[in-house]
Amino acid sequence: MTLLIYDGTFEGWLTAVFEIYEYKLQDVVFAKDEASNALLFSKTHITETDHTKANRVLKGLKQRLSINGITNMNHAFFSELPQIEESLFRFASYVFSSSTNIEGDLSNNDVLNIQKAAHLTGKESHRMKAFVRFKLTKDQLYYAIVEPDCNVLPLIEKHFKNRYADQRWLIYDTKRKYGIYYDLKSVSTVELTFDANPSSSKFLAEISDEDEEFFQSLWRNYFKNVNIESRKNTKLHVQHMPKRYWKNLIEKIPDIKK
């Protein structure tokens, strides 16, 4: 058994796939940056991301898969489901060993699992585009806190860059401890210590613009007034807006405090 350590990026994973074939590695288990105690006695192979190797693998996949197939692989990777890297590798191996497109072969467990993982990530990405709530700081930076089940920041970056091209913003993922920052020109990945507690009055007082609480109150009142009490359907509401998102939604914070 071989423990393959890579940097956790999709390009790093593609590089790892290249090196599995290059070095004829067997029974590979992927790990991000650090070895697993469960594999203490395994052979270890460390992969350094190499864009030339990654592009060669990606080119080979593109020759055998549709655009949707490549997108599914990318989305599946960001699902962060257990053993998703191993499932993706088996999927890629199936792709390379077949003379025909295998995307529709749902009898194959890895093909099916990649589709399921991609759907999960796509759904989470769609929700993030709807549930991100920006707040304004004193230095005119709009920031938002998210905690998605999947690593969707790389997938929603383009959407927010296009939609909010005229303002500086930061979307921070508290689960993964990193964010994406737009400086009016480009988007970059940032890592920082961030107090993301939405109920911390001291934190809000320190960083928020003086009019921020006023606008948040307006939004809460708007949200409350557009809801028709007689037509309230809590079950449907929670289905479309799961409670796990509520702690970062301005309109829901008063409900959490109760």
TrEMBL record:
Residues 83-251 form the DUF4130 domain. It comes from the Bacteria. InterPro entries: DNA_repair_put, DUF4130. This is TIGR03915 family putative DNA repair protein.
